[in-house]
């Protein structure tokens, strides 16, 4: 297939999927459900939305500050203003072209701080590896929080505790067998998976070169605590979600994080994923979708505004 056509499809297809999901969400809802969703959104308490936005901005600032800890071992540093604006420019780019933000972010900091692009981009890759590890950690914590509910759910769907136990043992054995196959495989696809896994390990090892390890770990935890906090405070905007505990909130956080990678900035997919997860916790669809739209809409709006302003001010600040 023509490489140019492939690039165009990578841009158009996620956006088309997002538009389709918005249409599907509206078309599949009854008039009463659509009305209730709009009422929830229009009646949302703005103070919780503002608090969520503040948490979002603080997380981006912390990410920009943490970036210097990765740049220092390779002999470079960047002004916080430039790092922050480069981060926001990247988020803005991802809304138009998925996964283009990392490249633009690296190019921006390379232009305004005279850091070689390859080295700047390498630190961004290391950062993404650390983010993946944090997401996996949150998934593990969520499973611990929801293990009791998950067990009872499986018991209702599958006959007997013994079958559940056997299923878990089989999954563990399959995982061990898969890892052994990966070590010796000559299959090109499996080799890519293995290399990706080794890349993750290398990214984790790169932390050992950081001089201020404590500060780096602190900001990493701060970033992800603020991410979860953004979800937690928005629950108070919808009466039906206000009583949710941390377990369901973490479950929605994971669903939202995965949905963000399926379409441009999670358009369409994010509210549907949130609503689907909240149905498991007896939150009706209109309330779940309102929760998703309030969170996605507010965070996307601030990313667009601050990202656009960053485009404008970067050349001004760096005359």
UniProtKB/TrEMBL annotation:
Q: InterPro entries, per this entry?
A: L-PG_synthase/AglD (IPR022791)
Positions of transmembrane segments = 6-27, 48-65, 80-97, 129-146, 158-182, 215-234, 254-281, 293-317
- Highest taxon of the lineage: Bacteria
Extent of the signal sequence:
none
- Topology versus the membrane, per the UniProt entry? Multi-pass membrane protein
Localization terms from the record: Cell membrane
Q: What is its main location?
A: membrane
Q: Which UniProt keywords apply?
A: Cell membrane, Membrane, Transmembrane, Transmembrane helix
Spell out the coiled coil positions from the record: none
Q: Does the keyword Phosphoprotein apply?
A: no
Please give the name of this protein. Lysylphosphatidylglycerol synthase transmembrane domain-containing protein
**Species the sequence originates in:** Aquimarina celericrescens
